[in-house]
Write a structure and sequence with these properties.
Blueprint (H helix, E strand, L loop, with lengths): L1 H26 L2 H27 L4 H20 L3 H13 L1
Helix pairs in contact: 1-2, 1-3
Length: 97
């Protein structure tokens, strides 16, 4: 059960970091992007290690946990983190009227 939790957690974190990587690239925040890249690689390595380990043991349930964590992480990153482009658009639209 601990392995499932770790895989789920690492996949959530990986997708959040991956979304933040796109944001930092867009905003040209090089320092934040480099730190984020380190975290992406560490989380990705851990997630892959535990997932492959369970797959080699014949445990296919880990695939569902892996995908579920991925979906939740992407949803969290897209809905709970600041969207700069949307804020600028809303600000410009509000001041234009």
């Amino acid at each position: 059960m601990k392995i499932y939790f770790l895989v789920f957690l690492f996949q959530v974190l990986f997708n959040i970091f991956k979304t933040m990587e796109i944001k930092y690239t867009y905003e040209q925040k090089v320092k934040a992007l480099l730190y984020n890249s380190v975290w992406i690689n560490l989380v990705s390595l851990a997630s892959t290690y535990f997932s492959i380990q369970r797959l080699f043991a014949g445990d296919w349930l880990v695939v569902i946990v892996y995908i579920g964590g991925s979906i939740l992480g992407k949803w969290m990153a897209m809905t709970h983190f600041e969207n700069i482009r949307q804020r600028v658009y809303s600000y410009l639209k509000r001041n234009k009227l």
